[in-house]
Amino acid sequence: MPTKVICIANQKGGVGKTTTAVSLAHGLALRNKQVLLLDMDPQGQSATALGRNPEPGIFYLLTMGLSAQETTFVNSWVRSSGREGLTLFPGDQQTMAAQTVLNAQNKPVSAIRNAISRFFKDGLDYIIFDTAPSVGGIQERAVWASDLIIVPTATEFLSADGVSKVMQMMSVLQEKKSWQGALLGILPTFYDEQTRESKATMESLQEHFGSRVLPPIHRATILRECAASGQTIFETDPDSRSAEEYQTLSKLVMKF
Ligand SMILES: Nc1ncnc2c1ncn2[C@@H]1O[C@H](COP(=O)(O)OP(=O)(O)O)[C@@H](O)[C@H]1O
Ligand SMILES: [Mg+2]
Q: Of 19, 38, 63, 196, which sits with the fewest C-beta atoms within 10 Å of its C-beta?
């Protein structure tokens, strides 16, 4: 199977992108897949959620060429996550500088796809991008580099705005830049059926996006706690509802 690239994207912060990227990456690895998680957010929170340190790997990935020598150097930033099947490609604040370089050099929309092509090989099943909304330009190229997009969205009022922006970006890329990828689904997060806000938002998402709305991830303090302690939900509490929900997502992703 060729390496499948999945981007976790939303223009909004705090909607569960990093939580989803890390949980899905580990969820797939626990299903015997080989996964490389790329941390495109300058905050480097995918690394910390896995108990690792942010490092400038992404900067070099995005600014260096594809020669054998450069590839050896870029590959040297691939980090073990300490979990079978899951490796991490870390980023840090220097990712902001890569953004400036990409724009200054007027790099094409295919720049990130080209940069990650060096990782495509037999045996690597998934590349997952955790992205940041603030780094405009990188996010667009990360979406273009991906086969499938997951859009986490908090089930709160006004959250549809962030979803619409990503959807709009996707249709522009499809129409104007011949992007071949597709939406895997919209993932409602922080779901709490006890609150009217959460329920109403869920209903409105379903009204607008129908079958593209995935089963929701409930609001759960354990998800915040495990990230803070550098463990995934499958390590902190594998029997929790959150673990079950992210397992469901992993299984769903494997069907695509
Ligand atoms: N379903 C959830 N329930 C409760 N807290 C969550 C949930 N998902 C994420 N969090 C917490 O909310 C904060 C923001 O989530 P995060 O995944 O970092 O969002 P983003 O990457 O979109 O900014 C983090 O502290 C995270 O641990
Ligand atoms: Mg994040």
A: 196
